[in-house]
Amino acid sequence: MKPQSPHRSxxxxxxxxxxxxxxxxxxxxxxLWLHQDSEQRGYEHGFNGGALLPMPEGVDQFSYxxxxxxxxxxxxxxxxxxxxxxxxxxxxxxDFYELTTMRPYELICDECVPLMEEHKRxx
Length: 123
What we know:
The chain has 123 residues and is an alpha+beta fold. The protein is built from 5 helices and 4 strands; from the N terminus they run αααββαββα. A two-stranded antiparallel sheet has the order 1-2. A two-stranded antiparallel sheet has the order 3-4.
């Protein structure tokens, strides 16, 4: 640990204390640099429903991927009951879909809950 300067501000002391607590808890600090144009292109492509792969040439792949996941997650998607396929409304893909495959999570509407419970008792 570096020797502490007598002229350190209260903010610097709090930050150092916070960093030490996080390290003791098993965390490691990482800094990520994202290329803004590549990230924006990825966001737009994900938001508009495009596939992650193949990526366009000339983009930073990590930045593009980060943007794509953010855009795909922000996309408004229809939400359906897994049992009867009735549409339950709309929501963000991040909340109702597995983003890498865009497969919906299993959701059951209020009308199907009694049917599912009856099926479980009968099995």
